[in-house]
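Weekly puzzle thread! Below is a chain. First person to post its structure in token form gets bragging rights.
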Amino acid sequence: MKLHRAYFSLVCLILLLSGSYLRAQESLLIGPGDMVHILVMDAPELEQHSRVTDSGEVPLMMGGDVKIGGLTPEQAASAIGKYMVNQHYLVNPNITVTVDQFATQNISVLGEVRVPGAYAVTTSKTVEEALALAGGLLPDASRQVVIQRHGTGQMVTYYSSNSPLTTPDSAAPGVNPANDAALRTRDTVVNPGDILRVSRAELVFALGDLGRPGGFPIVNNDTHLTVLQLVALAGGANHTASLGNVRLVRKDPDGKLVEIKLSLGDMQKGKKPDQVLQANDILYVPFSFGKNAALGVAQIGAAATGASAVIF
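Winning reply:
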């Protein structure tokens, strides 16, 4: 009796694991070079094992090619079934497609991550899981991750949020979730063979009489930095700073540097509203005793170029 129970438990475990494997495989997309197993239930003589061509097609035993690249196994079975009906081979075929061997079992994570490279996987991953394989994003990484799909080359944009819940309503300024159905969707998946590309974030610069001048990514916790936030990130203004003569340098639509005068002291006291920064803005806090007070707009811009090597 105990032996029968142990055997029954083993069979149940095998069925459970097999079902989990098949469900996981159904979420993977078929790509060039994959070896697929095509089974026609009512016509076992048509069973075949074939490799997907570079164009994403599978040659069928009875003749003809069907494009299944970029499809899940279930979608591929449907495409093959429709082909057989259209060619009058079968009236109502019952077809299953499974992938015997994936040509690519890696996810590549490139760009501004801690350990870029190719990572072996056996099933799909969420974008956050794929980024975790590479050690996560670097401090100066853009949070817009581009996914290049294996097999189709389709480009999908995903926004990697700092917030616990990724919702379109909390997107950072300049990010429009409506442009891409997958943007900021928590369950966006990365399949074997896909490539993740992470570019460097756009920067703003804090220069002058500050504790830690340098360049800083413009997006912080899903919002664009403000003047006061940037000053805080730069270690705050020193006691020798001239808070009433702060200058904000930015490029106009024609690419010309323009200067905006600010009173940082009034902002800190709440007498003046804080200002949201734009990409490549340069905040210059002069020294109160006149050192570098006469710097021109072009000199401040040149100083920011050097500061781009010091990113926090």
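Puzzle host: Confirmed. Bonus trivia for everyone else. The chain has three domains: 24-101, 106-200, 203-307.
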